[in-house]
Amino acid sequence: MTERTVHRHTFRSLTADYTRSGGGLLVTALPLVTVDTTITVAWMLAAGTFLFAVYGFNTIMRHLGIVECNETAILVSGPFKRVVAWSDVSDVRLRYFSTRRDGRQGWMQLVVKSPTASVRIESTLVGFADIVALAVKAANKRGIDLSPTTLGNTEVLRVKTGLFMSGNGSPCRVS
């Protein structure tokens, strides 16, 4: 890779998260300040308000963050900066989180770790599959074994790993 790529979450990709956090704050904070309640109900509403506020803050942080990939590292800038050098990668995981029992709707999360930092990226990020390909390439260069779950999820994204699954479900490296 000789160029740098920059990836951001679009407002459209985070609209559902903004809606959930705003709606949750409305449902929990509005009654807390406008309705006379018992102390137990007030504490429950306050806890809900706190959780939805944290969720909203998390969404804002993802929206403000910029993920940059170049030939040496993956960098996440914004309020909380993190850098993982490709030469220091110690683990790569790609997980799928389903929102339905049938597994048809959900999102993926890529975790790239080094001894000094960890970068987490969700599939709502524009160019997610390209970043996964770079992380898998870095893991292959370092001889890091990818879990069967990660390998299966890379297949869903059509990312070439240089590995295949044997008959017993264990990964095998192609030389």
Lay out the secondary structure.
Blueprint: E1 5-8, H1 11-34, H2 39-64, E2 66-69, E3 73-77, E4 82-85, E5 91-98, E6 106-113, E7 118-122, H3 128-142, H4 148-156, E8 163-165, E9 171-173
Antiparallel strand pairs: 1-2, 2-3, 3-4, 5-6, 6-7, 8-9
Question: Top keywords for this entry?
Answer:
175 residues, alpha+beta, four-stranded antiparallel beta sheet, three-stranded antiparallel beta sheet, 9 strands, 25% strand
Description:
The protein is elongated and about 60 Å long. The chain has helices at residues 11-34, 39-64, 128-142, 148-156, and strands spanning 5-8, 66-69, 73-77, 82-85, 91-98, 106-113, 118-122, 163-165, 171-173. Helices cover 42% and strands 25% of the residues. With 175 residues, the protein is of the alpha+beta class. Helix 1 runs antiparallel to helix 2 (39-64). The strands form three sheets. Strands 1-2-3-4 form a four-stranded antiparallel beta sheet. A three-stranded antiparallel beta sheet has the order 5-6-7. A two-stranded antiparallel ribbon has the order 8-9.
Largest sheet geometry = 4 strands, antiparallel
Count of helix runs? 4
Average predicted local confidence, pLDDT: 87
Radius of gyration, taken over Cα atoms and rounded to an integer in Å? 20 Å
Enumerate the spans where pLDDT stays under 50 for 5 or more consecutive residues. Answer: none
The rounded distance between the terminal residues' Cα atoms is: 21 Å
Shape: elongated
Instruction: Quote the beta fraction.
Output: 25-35%
What string, H for helix and E for strand, traces the elements in order? EHHEEEEEEHHEE
The structural domain count equals: 2
Provide the structure class: alpha+beta
Number of strands: 9
Proportion of helical residues: 40-55%
Strand arrangement within the widest β-sheet reads: 1-2-3-4
